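Appendix C: a fully annotated inverse folding record. The material below is reproduced so that readers can follow the format used throughout the book. The structure is listed first as tokens, followed by the designed sequence.
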């Protein structure tokens, strides 16, 4: 998809450690307004910051508005680059690593197309969920804020590459991996498997290296296809991290999203549709609430 892109006017995504495991920089926020202000974004201009300058070499600013297509038609999405410091040497634009200035050589680049709810919408979902669960709003909303902060930073990945810590079974971080996302869920595809030359410690088999600029572009295009080759769907739905199996058992999905016996089973591509469609419905009618928040607030799915 080639669209005329404009600089995204809101602040760009916050990347202090990793996109979907955002550690609080200040006191733990208790409302979504506080979360958005302190957890989710940094200033878009990034004046004087090397990451902002590098982003400008790739395109003006770190996020741009693009028009959604397919199931996202009629929506404005944010197509964002982001950078992590202290990582492997970046490659981009014709895959020429030497294009990166020496003082910026130890960074890692990701790119994610996102559809993010604003603070007021997030707060409304939380209040509706807490009321339905017959829980006191203050404590209940604060719990939801914490869960969203840890699971997504309030960001819904339509498609893209997220840099995450690769953890061994003992919880020790063993480097980083380029994780693929589609419709708010971690996915594995034939393309991601091809780039994972050796399995990661946690066995999720994502690229354990900086992807080249060409590979990132190809991955974004591949993830836009309704059913990419070799698609395998993971269990958690952003933005709050609800397990698809729990949703199936306690929610009202239109068709199964998980199949199996006992602990053995797999998540079906339908889980992507449910994750996307329930989020879209909640965005369009915030006062009706958001089923994923309801399941968390009621302590049904945690």
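Designed amino acids, in order:
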């Amino acid at each position: 998809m080639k669209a005329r892109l404009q600089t995204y006017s809101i602040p760009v995504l916050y990347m202090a450690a990793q996109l979907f495991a955002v550690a609080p920089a200040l006191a733990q926020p208790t409302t979504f307004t506080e979360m958005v202000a302190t957890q989710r974004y940094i200033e878009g201009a990034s004046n004087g910051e090397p990451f902002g300058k590098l982003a400008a070499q790739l395109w003006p600013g770190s996020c741009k508005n693009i028009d959604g297509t397919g199931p996202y038609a009629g929506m404005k999405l944010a197509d964002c680059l982001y950078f992590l410091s202290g990582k492997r040497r970046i490659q981009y634009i014709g895959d020429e690593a030497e294009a990166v200035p020496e003082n910026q050589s130890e960074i890692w680049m990701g790119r994610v197309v996102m559809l993010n709810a604003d603070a007021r919408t997030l707060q409304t979902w939380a209040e509706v969920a807490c009321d339905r669960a017959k829980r006191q709003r203050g404590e209940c909303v604060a719990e939801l804020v914490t869960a969203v902060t840890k699971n997504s930073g309030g960001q819904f990945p339509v498609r893209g590459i997220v840099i995450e810590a690769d953890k061994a079974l003992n919880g020790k971080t063993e480097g980083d991996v380029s994780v693929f996302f589609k419709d708010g869920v971690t996915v594995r595809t034939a393309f991601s498997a091809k780039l994972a030359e050796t399995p990661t410690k946690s066995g999720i088999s994502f690229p354990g290296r900086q992807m080249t600029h060409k590979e990132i572009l190809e991955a974004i295009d591949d993830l836009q296809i309704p059913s990419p080759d070799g698609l395998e769907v993971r269990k958690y739905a952003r933005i709050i991290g609800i397990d698809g199996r729990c949703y199936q058992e306690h929610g009202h999905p239109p068709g199964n999203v998980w199949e199996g016996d006992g602990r053995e089973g797999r998540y079906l591509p339908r889980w992507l549709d449910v994750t996307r469609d329930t989020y879209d419905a909640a965005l369009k009618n915030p006062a009706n609430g958001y089923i994923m928040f309801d399941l968390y607030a009621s302590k049904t799915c945690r």
